[in-house]
Design goal:
Transferase(Phosphotransferase), domain 1, 6 strands
Length: 369
Amino acid sequence: MLYEAKIMRLLQGEEGVPMLLWAGQEGEYNVMVTNLLGPSLEDLMQYCNNKLSLKTVVLLGKQMFSRIEQLHAKLFLHRDIKPDNFLVGTGDKADVVHIIDFGLAKKYIVTKTGYHIPLKTGKGLTGTSRYTSLNTHNGLEQGRRDDVEGLLYVLVYLFHGFLPWMKVKGNRSEKARKIADMKRDLPLPQLIGQLPMEFAHLLHYARSLRFEERPDYSYCKKLLDSIFFRAGYSDIEYDWKKLSEPVFLNELAKMEVTFLQMEYATRRREDRNNKDEGEIYNHAFGEKNQDDVLSVIGDGSEKGEDEQDEAADDKYYDKKGNKEMEVSKLPPISKPPVEMQSNTFRASARVPELTNDRSPNALKLFGED
């Protein structure tokens, strides 16, 4: 805890960082006192019926990118990005996302030399496996790119209320391996579900970064901005502030369904053009038989290493009554920006019905056109 307090002292004065009031030893205990914050994003998502609107996810994403940019500017990695570690404030800071829990943070610059830490292999998994990066699963030393990839998994989770690998079965090591397999093998459009393709582009971008490379945080936020303005949002109100206005929320939901349908239609037209040109983009890291992916999905009967997260999983799936999650093939994507194109980005053929229901069972399949 005193290590965490040391990092918080470095961050004091930055937007979205808790105010450190006191830290030290009290008897045999280490104690840290901060100002009171509001609920976490995990709590707020559950408060909003286990899903957040696209508008709220985009607004949160921009703030969260700023938080990790600030931390990285102080030469530290977070290494435990998850919804529980982002809290809103109180009072006049109620709309400000705060980042907490620096217990696993690590300096990525060697103090004596000023150089980036070396890339090491064979490292153990640090963080929460549901949100850790693919490189972390593969035993690589974490860098700034891994915080970015973890943040994107969090945003997908906040929108859908689930991630494809949430119900894998096994002990801790088995679950981590199966989750890694799914992160590697699921096509990015399938992973992001109904979200606009900017999220697939962002994931591909994060996975394409070199170990020592500084992420372009402005670029990431601009992609989120493009969604916000293209969807025609006109306010910055978060979902939990509008729960007493069901008419407003219903209208927002209808608008977002219409927007996502238009996005999908545009993607289909672009993909037909891509077919005429030859290669179609869909998978950033090779292909695998769909049955292999489905085979690692379980019914969630065993809990893993993060009991708080797993309890949330059980609550969601028990409420929906799903014994097993269906992973459906989602639509091909349009070409990403030039710097993110890959010769191994391939397309699947069948597409999901776009509805306001984002539960696993809502991913109904059409036949081909």
